[in-house]
Amino acid sequence: MKRIKIKDLLASGEIGAKVTVKGWVRTFRSNRFIALNDGSTINNIQAVVDFENTDEDLLKRLTTSAAVSIDGTVVESQGKGQRIEITVDTLEILGDADPDEYPLQPKKHSLEFLREKAHLRPRTQTMSAVYRVRNALAYGIHKFFNEKGFMYMHTPIITGSDAEGAGEMFKVTNVDLKNPPLTEEGEIDFKEDFFGKAVNLSVSGQLEAEVGAMSMGEVYTFGPTFRAENSNTTRHLAEFWMIEPEMAFYDLDDNMDLAEEMIKYLIDFAMEQCPDDLAFLDQRYAQEQKSKPQNERSDLGLLDRLKFVSDNNFERLTYTEAIDVLKRSKPFKKGKFKYPVDWGIDLQSEHERYLVEKEFKKPVILTDYPKDIKSFYMKQNDDGKTVRAMDVLFPGIGEIIGGSQREDSLEKLTTRMDEMGVPHEELWWYLELRKFGTAPHSGFGLGFERIVLFVSGMSNIRDVIPFPRAPKSADF
Ligand code: 4AD
Ligand code: MG
């Protein structure tokens, strides 16, 4: 008999049908009821065992997380909340899970505990729901851009350039670090290295995506990126996935329109693809809110919040206007911001969250930041002080997208690189894009795990990626 996935069985299983299901036991109770899950859905199929006619030793092996194969008959369910169940005809244990050793019990474990069990945590309802939502969002990204005629472009993971000019890169080398070849100055001589020079793991595919935009018109990347910043927060990973569209002939307004449209599309797509998972996560979120102090609770439930973001325009204002708003705010006047507000500061998450959660109560797009706190490649405004940058800020998250219109004048770009100490040599090809057929263009980067965080309502970024990498943490 051909196996049917539990999701399909629950949706369309006909009474009387003979079926085979395989999966892992969630629970086995009253020596009779197996709740079986195979990862295709958050829901279990209930399989009812005729215990009087089943070998007792076999029943004992029906422990949480044992892998089983069941041939059975679909019948109407007596229990509430489920349409069907199956009565077991034959039962085979494919793999035992000794309950004295198996670390996850059918009770609630803390997310911290589950992080130490990254190989087993997807067997829990919460984590499997998050992973399915993550998958739907990844699929949604490809669907959104392909429907718009964007080309998916693969940019390198090993790179010789620092795309953000921030110097937060992991080096990739095959020199023997215990006994490295040295230059006359006593530094490691990377000429002896595999690539003949020092290379890094990419912090962003943007610069290469610009090559794509300046030839194919509209492209996007979607790949892993790496940051060696020592940020031990609930929003940062050392390895995260980023979506970076890059478009020729787009100005900053076009860029903002695309970012807003994309996020709304992704939220709608996840709600359409994962209604059961999101209903479960909505309840989890509500529970979690209850355990928070009153002033930190979200006004809306998870699903209401997703609908709200999808249905309402994002607030758009300049950095300079945002500084004015912050200076007029109560926390500023009462000296309650930890980090003082003044034109020129890099906004801290307390400021971003004030704007989004207290002032505007919706996602906010800030534009035209001071040039000194932004990357070398952003297009300069005529005021000589600001650049055509945009950050999209989200409730509970802070920055979810960073982007800009790009500097398309060769002269302005090289001057800015000199001012910021960005070497020309390794970016000669990037500069040539401005020399041969330069054109206005724009793009942005969406942190994939940050949108997964928002949509799933989880509160720590380490719980939305299967194998998180963070400072002092790469155990799996
Ligand atoms: O603002 P960032 O650094 O921008 C860039 O890398 C540009 N090159 C993007 C572009 O214009 N093509 O990063 C973009 C987004 C952030 O808004 C955030 O969502 C996410 O990437 N991000 C991180 N996510 C998880 N962990 C980290 N350490 C992250 N750093 C950035
Ligand atoms: Mg940024």
UniProtKB/TrEMBL annotation:
Keyword check for Ligase: yes
HAMAP family cross-referenced by the UniProt entry: Asn_tRNA_synth (MF_00534)
One annotated GO molecular function: asparagine-tRNA ligase activity
Keywords: Aminoacyl-tRNA synthetase, ATP-binding, Cytoplasm, Ligase, Nucleotide-binding, Protein biosynthesis
InterPro entries with a match to the protein in the record: Aa-tRNA-synt_II, aa-tRNA-synth_II, aa-tRNA-synth_II/BPL/LPL, Asn-tRNA-ligase, Asp/Asn-tRNA-synth_IIb, NA-bd_OB-fold, NA-bd_OB_tRNA
Gene Ontology CC annotation, any one: cytoplasm
Keyword hit for Cytoplasm: yes
Pfam families documented for this protein: tRNA-synt_2, tRNA_anti-codon
Organism: Flammeovirga pacifica
Quaternary structure annotation from Swiss-Prot or TrEMBL: Homodimer.
Locations listed in the record: Cytoplasm
SUPFAM superfamilies cross-referenced by the UniProt entry: Class II aaRS and biotin synthetases, Nucleic acid-binding proteins
GO biological process annotation, one example: asparaginyl-tRNA aminoacylation
Record family assignment: Belongs to the class-II aminoacyl-tRNA synthetase family.
Gene3D superfamilies xrefs: Bira Bifunctional Protein, Domain 2 (3.30.930.10), Nucleic acid-binding proteins (2.40.50.140)
Name of the protein described by the UniProt record: Asparagine--tRNA ligase
